[in-house]
Design brief:
The structure is a homodimer.
Chain A: H1 27-40, H2 60-68, E1 83-85, E2 95-98, H3 103-111, E3 116-119, H4 138-150, E4 153-156, H5 159-163, H6 168-177, E5 190-196, H7 197-208, E6 214-216, E7 222-229, H8 235-245, E8 249-252, H9 257-269, E9 275-278, H10 281-296, E10 305-307, E11 315-316
Parallel strand pairs in A: 2-3, 2-10, 3-4, 7-8, 8-9
Antiparallel strand pairs in A: 1-4, 5-7, 6-9
């Protein structure tokens, strides 16, 4: 699998344990700050030059640079975290964070007067965002036109967010799942108070706002050691973690069915108790892009920053 | 996606149109033939040398060679269709065809005294069946031990079966779906009598014996032009077919969610009517391995050959 996912240790400092991630909008606070800034910025009011005027002074590149200062080893020589639309010098009117910059997310961002989307996953339907991956792709062309029309910049924040300490996605998921008290940075497993697989599924559905999941396992089986790999880490990493750690449950976003799903099915038919929960790719990592609002907001005073969940693309029939 | 799938023209000659694929067991007929052969083979009965004694005289390699004679361009220089377990010279007591040689399929084959499994997909959880893909894989080791214990040979029949004319998987699916009358070899689309997406889902569930599907689309929308790509063809092929043919519905086995699912979601949000049905990888191609019994049986008189469906690994929660 090409989608690189690195589970780095989560250092949990000063965060309220066990709370659900509140999808808190910074819009109200941001507007207040922007209003105050507008007053300060009135001509002739003697605005000091070292005060960063908040309303229109961040460019896309300045925001990216500000983020990269927090990422160990950044900038990376090779990364998919590039600007997919718009340009680096563009003045940012507002930020939307999301998993996928779908047509709806783009339109909603434009409607909020936010012209910078920070998306965790590709914009153009392949990991490298190669716009020639499928030649004469009319859907892709229309998406580019829409982005051009609204003058919206998109930056992918994937490799860097996973490389943050703690992993921005992993931390967001643990927080929203209510599992921060059960995670220890030096352990690869989340150690939960024992509960049945059925109870675990209900808890995940409620806390992560997921309607449907695919599962291999016995609903009545008791679980406590949880391996959490949101996103599409690929069969090799998923199976390696299962083999090394022997968790009760492996929770992932997406699988190759011929890899991890068949491995788990065989393991169980051979007598292992390991279960698999497939959350869905987007919904499994969305909490990490919601947490980005909390993480980034205070670094950009006065700039509206909101999370728009791109949501599950599927209906289940 | 590494799983090569080639949709080759289906030449439909002399097959009863529209019939559901009857999962006909050749066991009864085969046992009769084997009994007759046993009589013929009694010592001193003067068995003629040009009569191929049916009960134990096929080796794994002889059966593979017999199959490859029917595949254009075979043998291929590069193919994943290799022997995964057992050996080429092994005498075959019976054949089981399946999608995945799961632990249960192996045990059931052993219980039927069939020592040759022809599987469409990998045995060891990766496309190349590299047994070192995940080091110290205990599940894989136990599977090898079980295969050794029962002296079972496994051969993968993937690239060659897709290269058969007609594509063995595609033909099996069309047959079981009841769509042979609606397929024309020179067209890439299946042209169905108009029906709603909801009706199409019910028809697929019933005819292909599938319990659950993931869908992007409007259940009430009328469909007639169907793009059928069972298995995991990869986003590039799936999207290319969608772009080139503009079907009402794209039906696949498995997707990368960040590729085809997001492409379809965006296409619809841009006003396209295209829908996506994700059947599940195994169940989407299983009919092609069921059809293999009908195709191969008459070529191996006297040898028991049966299909065992490996089935959907998931429960849906």
């Amino acid at each position: 699998m090409i989608n690189q996912y690195t589970m780095v240790p989560l250092h949990i400092d000063g965060d309220e344990p066990g709370a659900l991630l509140e999808r808190r909008s910074f819009l109200a606070a941001a507007l207040k700050a922007a209003g105050a800034a507008a007053l300060l910025a009135l001509p002739g009011k003697g605005l000091t030059t070292d005060l960063h005027p908040p309303e229109t002074t961040y460019t896309v590149q300045e925001i990216i640079d500000l983020i990269l200062k927090e990422i160990p080893g950044a900038p990376f020589a090779h990364t998919v975290d590039t600007i997919k639309s718009g340009n680096a010098g563009q003045k940012v009117t507002g930020i939307v964070t999301t998993m996928f910059a779908t047509i709806k997310v783009i339109e909603d961002a434009a409607g909020m007067n936010a012209n910078f989307i920070i998306a965790h996953e590709p914009t153009f339907y392949n990991h490298e965002d190669d716009i020639h991956w499928v030649l004469h792709n009319e859907v892709l062309k229309k998406k580019q036109d829409l982005l051009q029309q609204h003058q919206i910049a998109i930056w992918r924040f994937h490799d860097y967010w996973h490389s943050h300490l703690p992993d921005g996605i992993g931390y967001g998921v643990l927080k929203m799942a209510g599992w921060l008290p059960y995670y220890q940075p030096d352990k690869k497993m989340v150690q939960l108070p024992p509960l049945s697989l059925k109870e675990l599924l209900l808890q995940l559905k409620k806390n992560l706002a997921i309607n449907h999941m695919r599962v291999i396992g016995d609903p009545d089986q008791i679980c406590e050691r949880i391996a959490l790999l949101p996103g599409a880490a690929g069969g090799q990493r998923q199976i390696l973690l299962a083999e090394n750690e022997k968790p009760d449950v492996l929770i992932v976003g997406e699988v190759h069915e011929w890899e991890t799903a068949e491995y788990i099915r065989d393991a169980r038919q051979l007598g292992s108790k390991i279960s698999l929960i497939v959350l869905g790719h987007g919904v499994s990592e969305e909490p990490g892009m919601a947490w980005l609002v909390e993480w980034l907001g205070p670094k950009l005073p006065g700039l509206p920053i909101n999370h728009l969940a791109s949501g599950d693309p599927f209906i289940w029939a």
